[in-house]
Amino acid sequence: ATCGHGCKYGECMGPNKCKCFPGFTGKTCNQDLNECGLKPRPCEHRCMNTHGSYKCYCLNGYMLMPDGTCASSRTCAMVNCQYGCEEVKGQVQCLCPSGGLQLGPNGRTCIDIDECSTGQAVCSYNRRCVNTFGSFYCKCQLGYELKYTSGRYNCVDVNECVTNTHGCNLHAECLNTQGSFQCKCKQGYRGSGFDCA
């Protein structure tokens, strides 16, 4: 079976037919499935969509149970947590719905962890980190674009000279480089390449 456009988060099952991994959708399985919008809803109270998955959390005064339901809890109501709580050995602790969030100084609200600046995020050498609330993702470096080549997705250099996005002077030559480009004034002209006289 060959899938010309590839199956980003899935497997090729037939001519251009992808079977997506759980949590992904689309013809090439390149889109995150928003489980929070499904009917029936996967969470009893509140739902937070994540890349390829989702997380449930409860309203204040309720405790998240292992099956995703929310149980009323007097102790949770007293603590006043932003995203519900859990009881551990008689101690009430507030919860955050994602590993990319941490409890704030008040112990009740959740604040975002910037994985990109703390170094917790690991992106391959040709990708850059983009922080999101509760998570992060890896994006191609500037001057590169995501393309499906030789059976997988890769960040490939954008040839600015071909795409005509260089801005070189009319009397200059465009020279493509990895991740960038250079402008060089033609013979008989002098300047930066963006200005030639």
UniProtKB/TrEMBL annotation:
InterPro entries: EGF, EGF-like_Ca-bd_dom, EGF-type_Asp/Asn_hydroxyl_site, EGF_Ca-bd_CS, Growth_fac_rcpt_cys_sf, Nephronectin_domain, NOTCH1_EGF-like
Domain EGF-like: 32-71, 112-150, 157-195
Keyword tags: Calcium, Cell adhesion, Developmental protein, Differentiation, Disulfide bond, EGF-like domain, Extracellular matrix, Repeat, Secreted, Signal
Gene encoding the protein: Egfl6_0
GO biological process terms held by the UniProt record: cell adhesion; cell differentiation
One function term, GO molecular function aspect: calcium ion binding
Broad class of the protein's primary localization: secreted
Protein's recorded name: EGFL6 protein
